[in-house]
Input
Amino acid sequence: MVERNGPDRDASAPTGSPHSPPPSFIEQANVTEPALHETFERNWPNCWTRAADLLSWDEEYETVLEDEDAPFYRWFADGRLNASYNCLDRHLESGRKNHAAIRWEGKRGERRTYTYRDLYVEVNEFAAALRDLGVEEDDVVTIYLPMIPELPIAMLACARIGAPHSVVFAGLSADALATRMDAAESEYLVTCDGYYRRGDAFNQKSKADNARIGLEQDVQTVVVDRLGDDLPHVLGENECDYHDLRETFAGETVEPVSRDAEDMLFLMYTSGTTGEPKGVVHSTGGYLAHVAWTSRAVLDVKPDDTYWCAADIGWITGHSYIVYGPLALGTTTVMYEGTPDYPDRDRLWEIVDRNAVDIFYTAPTAIRAFMKWGTDYPSRYDLSSLRLLGTVGEPISPRPWNWYREHIGGGDCPVVDTWWQTETGAVTISTLPGIDEMKPGSAGPPLPGIDVRVVDEAGEEVEPGQTGYLTIGRPWPGMARTLYDNDDRFVTEYWRRFSDPDAVNRQLTSPHSTESREDADDWRYFSGDTARVDEDGYITVLGRVDDVINVSGHRLGTMEIESAIADVDGVAETAVVGRSSGTGDTEIYAYVSTESGHDSDAVIQRSILDNIESAIGPIARPEAVIFTPELPKTRSGKIMRRLLEDVANGEELGDTSALRNPEIVGEIQAEIADEG
Ligand code: 6R9
Output
């Protein structure tokens, strides 16, 4: 039996009846070869040249895959290219300079359109400015911006000069920013004065200022003025204004730096099972090829589409499917700064209608909210421009899937449920809408060329219908190359559990040894998710087995939240779990025992919430803090988190006799009943 899956239990509902995309969709789809899965299988790994061929290379690659140093795989390794050239210059050269690249919708109803030419000009100017500030190839530039156009502009400017970017989600705290800058030894920061949250001006710069205080390195900071007079700010030492820089470097162009395909394009910090966030390293060639290919094959993006991925660029989804994928294909990507319910709950549908959006990609948590708000909001608008819908980030159960197709997709839009991770870089499991039928509640088959297997504890594939661990056998182009400055952790976190122990040991004891290895087949990537496969090979992802909670698509480590709580004076112990709300969203439940042993304590409760907010950010704020004299523990002293998760979810509890203190469980249940 596999460890219990994460909190989104709703997803374990059986899949609904299948839907085939309408012939009108299939006729126009980018990818329709019925035998594509077999073709990829037969030609693996050379099949992936299809993805690489979507890019423009400065120097063509000779080898597709190098696997001698598994699991440190190298794709298209002897090729050279530049990501910003692929997202900008080549579209200018092919006569699309006046085509809209970004349509930005601001929180206060502002709108800005950047043609490919506009974007090219501003990216070049900022690239020149970054160079002038001292940024050199391979220097990590941290970007701490909300959803304003300067965010993708800064990313592409970094890519242009070969400086990896590390985007930190704007809602994260000063501490979180500092930890990430420290880990990456980043000496450059691009941030802003502030941004609007709902109607109010919110100060971002003060968070950036606080983050820099604790850093050892000097940091050159560029500040974008987003709020103007709504939040006046003064620039200090080592700080400069983005718009001043643009004026200084007006009209300058910077030759795109030719990068090795394996050179780092960016770093993305993500939560793991320990408190230390992991710096996931993505490559230039393999990553860009994989995101371009999946944007084309899975999301059916065409150059003349208006495409909208309603995610935040501060997370991987936005990197891959707001910025790099759509821009590599030369399409129009919509970028939305606000929330779905401000100023009203029809905001997204108004944007779809006004921009005649063709493709819309969002997260299940949003879809569940739309469902709760009712059909009145979407029904006021003309959504008939929509051709394809997508979802990502969490399991989606059949009910919201069908609602989405029906009420947003007009009853016949194909819906792709795309499973992937920060570490996979791009989509790895999904139906191909020009080929496959969709089963609500199941993400679909692995993409062609991706070797997903759902296995038991011993690594053997489980029977259809059984739950197992979601693993991936062969490498794929968009995969993470390592964890920044931590090859060992890359091996132990993702590969050790299901790979050949000898191969793992060899890699850990003599890393990157040059002696020839023949054990590429011994390596198997573990995603951290559990899943089930059906007779047709369709995969239903159930949730995570590790200590990661997925709150509204934000990936948070329970350890990070726990350590913020444990820091509060008077807290003895704590355990944080995810709880599935009635609507299928995940909420954070924090169990706390205090040193004084009191049942509840308003002062401590306040400090806990403050501490979480400053250590991580408001997204990590628990729905409930439950005080208990003790946490339930095993005899060996381990906190029984799984039991606490069951308690939070109101589940039947199994045998609790293995506990050292079984009596505590009843007390906690009573406490939660009082809360509720
Ligand atoms: C892209 C992204 C990754 C985790 C992943 C899984 C969950 C993502 C999913 C899904 C079920 C889907 N997840 N897509 N679960 N169905 N279609 O979200 O990356 O933030 O790294 O999160 O999200 O649990 O392991 P990331």
